[in-house]
Amino acid sequence: MTVPSRKPLATPARILTAAADHIERVGLYQGDHLWQPGRMGGTAPCTVLHAWERGVRSVRPRWSVRGEPWDTFQRALFDSLVLLSNQVNGRPVSGVRWRKLRLTEDAYRRTLLWCWGGEPGRTTAGAATVIRTAAALHPSDGDHGTTGYLVLKNMV
Q1: N or C, which end of the chain has less CB nearby within 10 Å?
Q2: Is the distance from CB of 30 to CB of 122 less than 8 angstroms?
């Protein structure tokens, strides 16, 4: 028997909406150094990658839950990463890019999210808009029954 999760159902749209809400609340981090541990946290400005990770954590099932909620979560996790990285890239990300750099797909896509906000002229409102646009590409009640999805280990 599984214990019901108290968190919302994991869908790409919910992950991305939570990410947009977070970045609107704390702001987009821009600076000379992207990693400043002493200045990070739940209220410090963040990168798009950090906001996405906060969105992922907002729908992750409880550890005591077993079975289908985790399968659904894994599919939503990967779908949301693909949607958002394609959105910040301006078009679908080609597999040639990460293979040429000898990176895994998830590492390359995360790098896109990490670096996107560092470009001159990026704003918090622009980041939230990009994230919400990606969320709109996948409805919250979308079917996650696709077989053969990629399960990424230790993503968050």
Answers
A1: N
A2: yes
Q: Is residue 148 part of a domain?
A: no
Tokens of 54: 């906060």
Residue 150 maps to a domain: no
Higher pLDDT, 116 or 30: 116
Please state at what angle helix 48-59 crosses helix 124-136, rounded to 10 degrees. Answer: 50
With beta carbons less than 8 A apart as the criterion, state whether 100 and 12 touch. no
Q: Is 113 inside any structural domain?
A: yes
Residue 68 lies in a domain: yes
Range of the domain at 94: 12-136
- Rounded CA separation 134/137 (Å): 5
Q: From residue 119, give the alpha-carbon distance in Å to each of 36, 47, 80, 133, 136.
A: 18, 12, 22, 19, 24
Q: Which residues contact 137 (CB under 8 A, 6 or more apart)?
A: 83, 87
Q: What is the pLDDT of residues 89-135, one digit of tens each?
A: 999 998 888 888 899 999 999 999 988 988 888 999 999 999 999 99
Counted domains in the chain: 1
- Using pLDDT thresholds of 50, 70 and 90, give the confidence band for residue 146: very low
Q: What is the spatial distance between Cα 75 and Cα 108, in angstroms, rounded to a whole number?
A: 18
